[in-house]
Design a protein that fits this description.
about 260 residues, alpha/beta, Rossmann fold, eight-stranded mixed sheet, two-stranded antiparallel sheet, 9 helices, disordered C terminus
């Protein structure tokens, strides 16, 4: 049987790191109901984003693994997903993971879980990433409510397409989303002439333009997109789309430790 010919630019090799209970749930959701192969701590998911088919190869490692093993896994990864629990006040191992990714300029996403826990604090997770003094956190989703009032997430990049009905549905939280969106635009388009205080100009920014800016900053390790895990309120599709849109393919990874052996 001939091996399937897969273009390198359509491949994403992703290592998911965090507490094993959290990462196992994320991996299970990623491969459930989707075409997949593999077993144990590795799997392959086939996913289509923006009308292009991609192959996502998923590896998983516990944040409790020895530091040397964690550093090696991060250093050779094309991209990392750091799973953060919003209800955990201090996670030294997770901070180490983020710091190692910064040191080696490995592209990363951060997925915040546990948003429905009474002790959940989304802002604390964002501050933890910012305190690493490496990649700037880019919140692409924010929780709609928090703790016992958590009802799902708001996707910031495409939010204006939903504005006619979303303002009524989200209520006062829509103003919060506008502020987070302004912060996102401020960060990724700081060289642009768009006035972040002009709400009309904010609406007119094409989502594709924001995707491109976020991707460029993520590839070079200057930014870390932050997403919310909305289990069981939504599908895993936003995470898969983010993996494809923002994390690099093997041909875009520059670290000499990466070997293209497929």
């Amino acid at each position: 049987m001939c091996a399937e010919n897969i273009a390198l630019q359509a491949i994403r090799n992703v290592t998911i790191i965090g507490d094993p209970n959290e990462t196992s749930r994320v991996v299970h959701r990623l491969i459930r109901h989707l075409t997949k192969t593999g077993s144990g701590t590795a799997a392959t998911v086939h996913w289509t984003t923006d009308h292009i088919d991609h192959t996502i190869r998923i590896a998983e490692i516990s944040s409790h693994a020895p530091i040397a093993a964690l550093e090696r896994s991060i250093r050779v990864a094309d991209g990392v997903i750091a799973v953060m629990n919003a209800a955990v006040q201090s996670a030294p191992r997770l901070e180490t993971i983020l710091r190692v990714a910064d040191d080696h300029q490995v592209a990363r996403l951060c997925l915040v879980t546990g948003l429905d826990h009474p002790a959940a604090d989304f802002d604390r997770c964002v501050r933890t990433i910012a305190d690493m003094h490496g990649a700037v956190p880019l919140a692409l989703q924010i929780p709609h409510g928090i703790g016992t009032e958590f009802e799902g997430v708001v996707d910031l990049v495409p939010m204006w397409a939903l504005e006619p009905i979303a303002v009524e549905f989200y209520g006062s939280h829509w103003q919060v989303a506008e502020e987070w969106y302004r912060n996102l635009v401020d960060t990724v388009m700081e060289q642009d002439t768009t006035d972040p205080n002009d709400i009309r100009s904010l609406r007119e920014i094409p989502p594709e333009q924001l995707h491109d800016r976020v991707r460029c900053l993520t590839h070079i390790g200057d930014a870390a997109p932050v997403l919310c895990d909305a289990t069981p309120w939504s599908h895993i599709a936003p995470l898969l789309d983010a993996i494809v849109r923002y994390l690099p393919s093997p041909m875009h990874v520059c670290q000499p430790e990466h070997a293209l052996d497929y």
